C-alpha cells in the first residue's frame, strides 16, 4: 500500500499506516522526493508510529530519504519510533545518523518550525 | 496450538510475512513486549539476507523447550552461493551487498543463541534461538 502524503502548508506529512515492504519504502522515498519539489516543501515529517520493526533496510532507507530531501532544500523529521523498536534498533546496532527525530507528530512539527524558520539566518 | 511455521522467502513482501508470523508465534510461545519486536527484527534481517544473496530460501519458526526454558527458534535456510568467509561476515559493517553489514552480527546480538553454517556453492543455514526470560 502506498503511504499517504498530506500537504500541510510548507510541510509534507507522510503517515505510515501499516508494515512496509522494501519496495513500498522505496516508493515512499521516490514519492517524497518528487512531491517535496512540486509543493516547494520546507519540511517533511515521516510518522513511523505504527511500525513494529525498524530493521537495517528501513533505517538505511529513512536515512537516504532525509539526505535526498536535504539536497532538495528541505528538513526531515522522523517521528513516533516506539520504545521497543528503539530498543531493538540499539541492540542491532542501527543509528539514524544526522536524521532528526521527535517523539510524536506534535513535537515533530515544533522541531521543523524551529529548523525552517524564515529569515532566522542562523541555520547551519 | 500451532507451534511451527514455514515461510518461503523470495521477495521483499515475504520478509514482511515472515516477521509477522514470527511475532505471532513468539506471542503464542509466551514472549511479550520488546522481545516480540526483537524477534521480528532478527527475522527481518535473516530473511533479507536470503533475498539479497540467495534470492530463494525459507524461514522455519518453531517453539522450542529445553527443560524449564521455552523459546522460539528461527532457522533461515537457502541454497544460494554460500559465505566464503564467515568470520568476516560476522563483523559489524562488513557487507558484500547493499546492506549496512549489520544483519548477521546484529542478529547474533538480538538473539540468545546463534549458529551459522555455510558452504560455498551449496548454501547457508542460520539458526538463532531466543529464550523467554
**Helical content of chain B, roughly?**
25-40%
Count of discrete domains of chain B:
1
Silhouette of chain B = globular
Fraction of residues in H or I helices of chain A:
40-55%
Describe the model:
The complex is a heterodimer of chains A (124) and B (133). With 124 residues, chain A is α/β, with parallel strands linked by helices. Chain A has one domain: STAS domain (Transcription Regulator spoIIAA, 2-Layer Sandwich), CATH 3.30.750.24. Chain A has helices spanning 22-38, 56-71, 83-92, 105-115, and strands spanning 5-8, 11-15, 43-47, 75-79, 100-102. The longest helix of chain A has 17 residues, at 22-38. The N and C termini of chain A lie far apart (37 Å). Chain B has a single domain, classed as Histidine kinase-like ATPase, C-terminal domain (Heat Shock Protein 90, 2-Layer Sandwich), CATH 3.30.565. Chain B contains four helices and five strands, in the order E-H-H-E-E-H-H-E-E. Chain B has helices spanning 12-29, 34-54, 86-89, 103-110; strands spanning 4-9, 57-66, 69-78, 113-119, 123-131. In chain B, strand 2 (57-66) and strand 3 form a beta hairpin. The chains are: A alpha/beta (124), B alpha+beta (133). The interface between A and B is medium-sized, with 24 and 28 residues.
Keywords:
heterodimer; A: alpha/beta; Transcription Regulator spoIIAA; five-stranded mixed beta sheet; 4 helices; B: 133 residues; alpha+beta; Heat Shock Protein 90; five-stranded antiparallel beta sheet; 32% strand
Write the layout of secondary structure elements.
The complex is a heterodimer of chains A (124) and B (133).
Chain A lengths: L4 E4 L2 E5 L6 H17 L4 E5 L8 H16 L3 E5 L3 H10 L7 E3 L2 H11 L9
Parallel strand pairs in A: 2-3, 3-4, 4-5
Antiparallel strand pairs in A: 1-2
Chain B lengths: L3 E6 L2 H18 L4 H21 L2 E10 L2 E10 L7 H4 L13 H8 L2 E7 L3 E9 L2
Antiparallel strand pairs in B: 1-2, 2-3, 3-5, 4-5
Helix pairs in contact in B: 1-2, 2-4
